[in-house]
Structures are given as C-alpha cells and as structure tokens.
Amino acid sequence: MKNNYPTENKKTNNLLKGFTVKQIVWFIIGALIALNALIFLILGLINDYASLPYSPFKAPNDGMIKTLGGIDFKWFGVITLILGTFIFTLSLSMASKAEDREKEREARREQRIKAMEEQSKSVVLNFEGTSSSIEK
Question: How far apart are CA 44 and CA 47, in angstroms?
Fold first, then answer.
C-alpha cells in the first residue's frame, strides 16, 4: 500500500533545522525593523532631495523632528537600520552556535562509539581451561 501523505521538503527542513521558534521570531522582528528603517530612509531622502512643488512628507518629518528632538526621517531610518541588523545578526549568531554545539555533540558521540568498538575488538580472550573429565 502506497503512502499518500505529502513528503517533507528537505530544503526547507534543512534550512530551519538549526533554528528554534524563538530565534525565527527574533529574526523576523529584526528583518521587519530593518525594512521599516529602509522605508524611513527613502522617505527622508525624497523629502530632502526631491524637487517636488508640494512635499507630502514635510509635515510628518517636521513633527518627528519636534517629537524626537532633532531626529528626522533619515536619522531615524539609520538608527533603526542599525537596531534591526543587530537583532537579526544576533539571531543568526545564536542559531549558528546552536548548530555548532549539535555538530560537536554528534562528533563526540561518534568518537565514543568508535573508541568503544576498538576497545571491544582489542580485548582478546585468552582462555586456557581444563576440564576435570578430560585428563591426560
């Protein structure tokens, strides 16, 4: 009887193998913060350098400057880009460390198994026994 269940995609399984759910969530949060930062950077550049007769971003940019004490769209984008890249870099680093620990654990286990096999092969039974029923 043939199994009708769909098989797992090995690429996806291998891609997410070293990640925990917590790391994936932090990675996504960092990526979204960085994407938000790029949007603010683009809006700030459009506001400052595009020669538009009416800039729809002028009022929000001025409001942000008043609220954050001189930080406009561009600088807010730079700060949040640094924060976002730091968060998802930290997430990738933690996943990498976890994967390295797993590989080291597997390597140590393999070494222990090989050592046990070699030890069991090197044990030579030297049995010289006599039987009381057969005496010469």
Answer: 5
